[in-house]
Amino acid sequence: MAQKRRDATVGKTTVIDSVCFFTSRAGYKMRAQVYLNGYGRGEGTHVSVFFVMMKGEYDAILSWPFRQKVTFTLLDQDHQADVTDWFHAGAYPTSPSFARPTGDSNLPCGTPDFVPLERLYNSGHAYVRDDTMFLKITVDTVGLV
After folding, report:
1. Given this model, what pLDDT does residue 49 score?
2. What is the pLDDT of residues 74-101, one digit of tens each?
C-alpha cells in the first residue's frame, strides 16, 4: 500500500484495477478502479473509487442499461467506522457508463472524493493496517434474474 501510494503521488501508477467479477454466475461483468492519490476533483486530496462495466460473455441475456445500486465500502479493520458511498445506476438511464459495452469496457462511474487522504491515514481508524487496505463493492441484485 505504501509503495502504491508513493507511485500514485509521483504519477508513476495512478490507478489500480481490480480483477473482474460478476454479479452472479451468468451476470454482469465489472471491475473497480482505485486512485490512491485521487482523480479529478479529488486529485491530491482524496482516494477516488470507480466502477467499470466490462464486456461479458452473458451480455446478450442481460437487461440493459445496467440499473442496480452499487455501494463502495472502505473497511475499518477495527470494525468501528467503515466509510461508505453509493450510487444508483438507474438514476442515469442514458449514461454510456451503464449501456451494454461495445468495447472491452465502458466509461468508469464513481466518486472522485470517496475518502480524504487525511482521514485514511490520520483519523485513528484502521483503514490501512499492515500496509493493507480493504475496499468492498456491493451490487444490489434485487430484481436481477
Report:
1. 97
2. 999 998 899 999 999 999 989 999 999 9
CA-CA distances (angstroms) from residue 81 to 38, 43, 77, 117, 119? 21, 23, 9, 15, 11
Q: How far is the C-alpha of 33 from the C-alpha of 62, rounded, in Å? A: 23
Q: Distance between terminal CA atoms of the chain?
A: 37
The whole-model pTM stands at 0.88
d(C-alpha 78, C-alpha 63), whole Å? 39
CATH node for 2-139: 2.60.210.10
Interatomic CA distance for residues 113 and 48, integer angstroms: 5
Q: How far apart are CA 49 and CA 78, in angstroms?
A: 22
